[in-house]
Write the structure tokens for this entry.
Amino acid sequence: MGPKFGSFGILLITMSSGKIKAGALWPKSKEELTKQLNDLKTELGQLRIQKLVSSGAKLNKIHDLRKSIARVLTIINAKQRAQLRIFYKGKKYLPLDLRPKQTRAIRRRLSAEDAARVLEKTKKRQQHFPLRKYAVKAA
């Protein structure tokens, strides 16, 4: 059997079924994900052509495909960022997009370690002259 052609000479390919669940995408490798992404994009292009040609618009199917493409891209990006985090762990500098997102003031604040530091002289003074404890007689 050869390829099927529609009434306007457009090659018709059988469409994939339903939405893609993100849980099913996590165990896949990057090559599998990129292949699936390309398949989804070609399918979306074909659906858009069908929408133009035929009167019956497949808007729901187009919507589902766009969301599936977004899911695949999200997982590809998340995996890539996870690999980058592993690569940069323990390095002196971290790329800006991998650093924690905080306000400018928090980023400029002293670290907890630096804020807790005490000078040697101050430490000795606190040891030698601690706060005095007084017993108060009940009236």
